[in-house]
């Protein structure tokens, strides 16, 4: 019964994502109908329509789909690993650290490594430090989260320091990384994330049984033959990698890693590990937020990171103020 409901939920989310992506491809100064969008995608539209859809807007929508899926999938993995709904990459500082290292690459601070590589280094370093500071509790409990918050604050301050020490043109080029934006994203970074997220999702789906058992009891997980250390290491590595590459494309887009898994659990009506549903929910949220940001104050564009923060922050406050509940 649960599998059947999850299947229908994922189908509905996929259809919703297709509809919303079509509307996003048709929105802008050159407005196109859904039929014109699909004609342009298949090379049957006018030259102007094909230019607008395939060259100008498609890359942006793909970036939204992939980064949203990566953030939400990473959040679902981290929440399950820490058995805490607040343990998402944005809240425990991974996003900020990845951003700081990516900005360092953009402003040319003693490195020639591309932003995606630097973002991955920053994400891995933040996770290692949070894990180290958490001590023997590992990723369990609030100590891991508090350590991550501190690391994120330091990384955020470092980002501002870097931007304050460079010329205004260089700072403007790096600024979108600090708020989260899908505007003019690098095609190489987008396709790189695509190549990462597909195998990551496959590996993550292979970990579902172990992650489900991990939510119940560590003792039960070990007694059923699950290699606990390997499970935690692979899960943590996937979360860090997905976050690093997503930040390298869109910057630190907050709340998607929190809201994506929450929406998937709500739709599935259970507190399991809905990895595929979380990825679809995150993609849907990111495309929707970017579309709203382009439409709300047009022709002024509101970065997608601001939209998700405004929408997601009230939910985060509600989550913090509500009575304590067990894991995700």
In brief, what are we looking at here?
This protein is mainly α. The protein contains 14 helices and no strands.
CATH C-level label: Mainly Alpha
**What is the percent of helical residues?**
over 70%
**Helical run tally:** 14
- Determine the CATH topology: ABC transporter involved in vitamin B12 uptake, BtuC
The CATH architecture name reads Orthogonal Bundle
Mean pLDDT across every amino acid position: 83
Query: How many individual β-strands?
Result: 0
Give the uncertain stretches in residue-range form.
none
State the shape.
globular
Describe this structure in words.
With 328 residues, this protein is mainly alpha-helical. The protein has one domain: ABC transporter involved in vitamin B12 uptake, BtuC (Orthogonal Bundle). It has 14 helices and no strands. The protein has helices at 2-26, 34-41, 47-82, 94-106, 115-134, 142-164, 168-179, 187-206, 208-216, 218-223, 228-250, 256-268, 275-296, 304-321. The longest helix is centred in the N-terminal third of the chain and has 36 residues, at 47-82. It is globular and about 65 Å long. The chain starts with a helix and ends in a 7-residue tail after the last helix. It is a multi-pass membrane protein. Keywords: Cell membrane, Membrane, Transmembrane, Transmembrane helix, Transport.
């Amino acid at each position: 019964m649960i599998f059947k409901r999850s299947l229908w939920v994922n189908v509905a989310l996929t259809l919703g994502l297709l509809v919303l992506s079509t509307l996003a491809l048709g929105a802008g100064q050159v407005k196109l109908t859904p039929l014109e969008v699909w004609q342009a995608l298949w090379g049957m539209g006018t030259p102007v329509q094909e230019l607008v859809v395939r060259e100008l807007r498609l890359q942006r929508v793909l970036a939204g789909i992939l980064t949203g899926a990566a953030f939400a999938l990473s959040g679902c993995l981290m929440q399950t690993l820490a058995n805490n709904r607040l343990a998402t990459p944005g809240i425990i500082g991974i996003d900020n650290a990845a951003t700081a290292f990516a900005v360092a690459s953009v402003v040319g601070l003693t490195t020639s490594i591309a932003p995606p590589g630097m973002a991955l280094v920053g994400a891995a370093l933040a996770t290692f430090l949070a894990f180290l500071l958490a001590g023997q509790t590992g990723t369990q409990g609030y100590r891991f989260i508090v350590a991550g918050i501190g690391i994120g604050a330091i990384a955020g301050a470092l980002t501002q320091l870097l931007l304050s020490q460079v010329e205004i043109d260089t700072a403007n080029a790096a600024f979108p990384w600090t708020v989260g934006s899908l505007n003019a994203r690098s095609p190489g970074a987008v396709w790189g994330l695509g190549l990462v997220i597909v195998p990551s999702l496959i590996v993550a789906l292979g970990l579902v049984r172990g992650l489900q058992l991990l939510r119940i009891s560590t003792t039960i997980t070990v007694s059923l033959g699950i290699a606990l250390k390997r499970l935690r290491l692979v899960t943590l590595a996937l979360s860090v990698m997905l976050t690093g590459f997503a930040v390298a494309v869109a910057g630190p887009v907050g709340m998607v890693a929190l809201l994506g898994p929450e929406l998937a659990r709500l739709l599935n009506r259970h507190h399991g590990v809905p990895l595929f549903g979380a990825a679809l929910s995150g993609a849907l949220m990111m495309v929707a937020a970017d579309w709203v940001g382009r439409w709300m104050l047009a022709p002024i564009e509101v970065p997608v990171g601001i939209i998700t923060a405004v929408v997601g922050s009230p939910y985060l406050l509600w989550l913090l103020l509500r009575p304590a509940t067990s894991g995700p």
